[in-house]
Amino acid sequence: MNASPLYSGSMKIVTWNVNGIRARQAQVTELIGQEQPDILCLQELKAKPEQVPEALRARADYWCYWHGAAAYSGVSIHLRKERFPDKPVFTHPPFDHESRIVEVGLAALVVASVYVPNGGKDYAAKLAFLEAMERYARTMHAAGRALIVCGDLNVTRTDRDVHPKERKPNAIGQRPDERALLARLLGCGLIDVGRALDPDNDNLFTWWAPWRSLRQRNIGWRLDYVLASESWARRALSCPVLREFGTSDHGPVVATFAAS
Fold this sequence. Notes:
The longest helix has 20 residues, at 123-142. The chain has one domain: Endonuclease/exonuclease/phosphatase (Deoxyribonuclease I, Chain A), CATH 3.60.10.10. The protein has a 6-stranded mixed β-sheet. By secondary structure, it is α+β, with helices and mostly antiparallel strands. The protein is built from 6 helices and 12 strands. The chain is globular, with a radius of gyration of 17 Å.
């Protein structure tokens, strides 16, 4: 019997908040060429599916699912056909709103591309979304399914995930109540792959405010994550942030997992 494509060879997942797919079209194409991800998760598309550039929508090498609205939010997932030859089914959990989460089931694994609300306009909605994420993870694990959550969660886990010059008491993204909800999500059996593989790095950031050369100086926040169920997290080989790639205010995160 042939091995499942899911478990044959290492698997690479890339997640990136593009801050506008139309502005970053060429860079997404470059990222795919550079990293050759098996799964690509994008966030903050700021475009309806029909507004996504044709060169990305019509790619023959990936199964693509675009989930967005004009000028706001939006997420997508892309599966490399060479790795996943059967057409996948993309779905949305019931708590999806404003085009913020899409999932794909791959045998016993579910991968989700997620864009948590920033909270600046409706902080209560952000907390509600994080609470729903916790219930979602518990439900998946109770059903015996592994989960990999990729995306911009818009919360820093601790002060360590914010450069000292950017730490601000009660700033959204750094508040105790939202951090507590992220901790509860991790308590559902998910592991922060980036931190697990780089536990001593005090300069591990994924977002930089677009002024005063903060990105070049690596004065940032860690908002983008790959969270994986333990069965997958223990297979993680690397999870770097590509700080120097592209012109989004976020850097891509690249997680590579060993074959089972």
